[in-house]
Amino acid sequence: MNFKKLLAQSLIWRSLYFASMLLVNIFLSRFLKASGAGSLYYLTNIFSLIQLLLSLSLESGITFFASGKIIPYNKLLWLSVAWSFIIGLSIFIFTFLYLFYVKHSPAEMIMSYSFFVVCYTTGLLLTNYCSVLFYAQGNFFLSNFILILLNIAFTCTIPFSNNSSNASFTNIVLYRYFSVFFIQGVFLAIAFIIKNKSWQQFAIPSIKELTRLGRYSLIALAANVIFFLVYRVDYWFVHNSPVCTSSDLGNYIQVSKLGQLLLIVPQIIASVIFPKSASGADRLELNASVMTIARLLSQFFLFILVITAVFGKQIFILVFGETFDRMQLPFIIILPGIFCLSVLALLSAYFSGKGNLRVNVAGASVALIVVITGDYFFVPVYGIIAAATVSAVGYFVNLLYSLLQFYKDYSISWVDFFKWKRNDYYWLISLLTGK
C-alpha cells in the first residue's frame, strides 16, 4: 500500500480513536471538576512515566524491526505479551510492599493504588505493543476499532455531572477508568493472535535478535524519556508552585491535554512515516510529503489560534464545565509551541525510521534544559502563565535543532517548510478523496 493510502487509512481510524478519547476526557472532567480531574491526571502522569521507563520503548524497536521484516511479527507479539505481564506482576509486588511497609498506608488505599497502577501500566504496554504491530502490517482499522468501542462503552457509564457528596460512586468510576486500560490491552493482544494465528508460531526472538532489538529500543527509550519530561515536567512545577491551586493544576493539565489532542494528526502521520522511513521506500515522496504536511499544519494552527483568542473561554467552560475558566490565556501562549511539536513529530518519526535516534535524543535534551531552567525560576512566581510560556520556548528550541539536522540530510530551502503553496491543497484533496 502506498504512502497516501496508508496515511488516509491511518487518519480516519486513529482520528476516530482520539475523538473517543476526547469524549472520555470531557465526561471525566465534567464529572470530577477541575480539582478532581487535575488530581487524576497528575496521578496518571506519574503512572505514565513508570510505564515509559519499564516499557524500554520496545514499541519503537518493534516498529523498526517489524516494518523492515527483520524479526517475524509473531516473535515480537509473544515477547510483548510476556514482558507486559512480567512488568505488571513486578509493579504490583513493588507497589504493595512500598505502601504497606514504607508508607504504612490503609489497606483500602494499598489495594486501590496497586490495582490502578497495574491496570494502567500493563494495559498501556499491551496496547502500545500490539498497536504498532498492527500498524507495521498496514492495518490501522482493527486495533483502533476495538479501542473506540471500549472508550464509548466506558463513557456511557459516566454521568455528565457529579454530586460531590457521592464519594463511593466516584470510586466506582475511577475503578472502571483504570480497568478499561487493561481490558484494551488484552483485547488487542487477542485480536492480533487470532488474526495472525500466532498460537501456531509460539516463539520469542533469538538472543541475537533480542540484542539488536534491545540496543535500538534503549536508544529510543532515552529519547522518549527526555521527550516525556520536556512535555510534562511542568506538571510537577505547577503542582508544587506556591501561587497555584489545585484548580489551576486542573486547568493547566487540561490545556496540556488539549495540546496533545492537537498533536493527534501529526502523530497519526508519524505512525505512517516511521515504517515507511524504516523500509527505505518512496524516500523522495516521503520527504516532500513531510514538508507539505508542515505547511498545512501551520495554517490549521493559525485558525485554531484565532478561534481561541475570540471564543476560547466560552468554549472551554461550555465543554469542560465552569471550573475550567482559566484555560484561555495559557492555551493561546502554548499553541505556537504545540505547532512546533506537530512538525517535530514528523521529523522525529523520519529520523527514527532511518535509525538516527541520536538526533531526537540531542534535540530533546537541549529542550529539557530550557524547560527545567525556565520552570524553576518562573513558575513559582508567575504560575501557569509562566509554565505555558517556558514550554512553548522549549518546544521551539527542539524543533529548530531537528530542522537543522533535516537540512543536513535532505538539502531544502527553509522557506519550503513553511511558505504556503496552492499545490498543498491539491495534495490534501487527493489524499482525502483517494485519487
Task: Walk me through what this model shows.
It is a single chain. The chain is mainly α. The chain has one domain (3-433). Helix content is 84%, strand content 0%. It has 14 helices and no strands. It has helices spanning 3-55, 58-67, 73-102, 107-136, 142-155, 167-196, 207-239, 246-262, 264-279, 283-320, 328-353, 357-409, 414-418, 422-433. It is globular. 44% of the residues are buried. The mean pLDDT is 86.
Topology, element by element:
Layout: H1 3-55, H2 58-67, H3 73-102, H4 107-136, H5 142-155, H6 167-196, H7 207-239, H8 246-262, H9 264-279, H10 283-320, H11 328-353, H12 357-409, H13 414-418, H14 422-433
Helix pairs in contact: 1-4, 1-5, 1-7, 1-8, 1-9, 1-10, 2-4, 2-7, 2-9, 3-4, 4-6, 5-6, 7-8, 7-12, 8-11, 9-10, 9-11, 10-11, 11-12
Percent helix: over 70%
Q: Supply the number of helical segments.
A: 14
Strand count, sense and barrel status of the largest sheet are: none
| Coarse morphology | globular
Structural class: mainly alpha
Number of strands: 0
Helix/strand order: HHHHHHHHHHHHHH
Mean pLDDT: 86
**What does the radius of gyration come to?**
21 Å
Unreliably modeled segments:
none
Number of domains: 1
Distance between the termini: 14 Å
The protein's oligomeric status is: single chain
Residue share in β-strands: under 5%
